[in-house]
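Example 9 (inverse folding). The structure is encoded as follows.
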């Protein structure tokens, strides 16, 4: 995999509002991979705040994302990332040669209660576990 950000892989998670799926994915990757991976998340039309049901669902597993804020997607964020993962919401990432692009088909937690967010959260953790195994293999 090409590396543009130094010795560790970098991942950008993208969804439209950067208020649910991409925030959970970034939080899981940060929590599970620690400093082995550089993590970013962004959206093309960021919301005002992270979805409260998402914050609560992540709190249930010991991850506090209450201080996170949705961020706007920039071409620079894509350029600086080795892997760009969209969250099944039809968002368009700028495409640059040498980058890896994935699309994770995930239900949208917008407008859902914490009960509906839990299975999305748990599926994202599974996807992130697999991603970590893949992008950190043969690395310290």
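The amino acid assigned to each position is listed next.
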């Amino acid at each position: 995999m090409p590396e543009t950000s130094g010795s560790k892989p970098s991942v950008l998670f993208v969804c439209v509002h950067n208020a649910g799926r991409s925030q959970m994915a970034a939080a899981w990757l940060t929590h599970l991979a620690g400093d082995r991976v550089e993590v970013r998340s962004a959206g093309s039309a960021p919301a005002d705040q992270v979805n409260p049901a998402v914050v609560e669902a992540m709190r249930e597993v010991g991850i506090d994302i209450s201080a996170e804020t949705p961020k706007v997607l920039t071409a620079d964020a894509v350029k600086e990332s080795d892997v760009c993962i969209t969250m099944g919401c039809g968002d368009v990432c700028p495409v640059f040669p040498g980058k890896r692009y994935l699309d994770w088909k995930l239900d949208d937690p917008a407008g859902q209660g914490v009960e509906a967010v839990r299975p999305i959260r748990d599926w994202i953790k599974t996807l992130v576990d697999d991603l970590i195994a893949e992008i950190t293999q043969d690395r310290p």
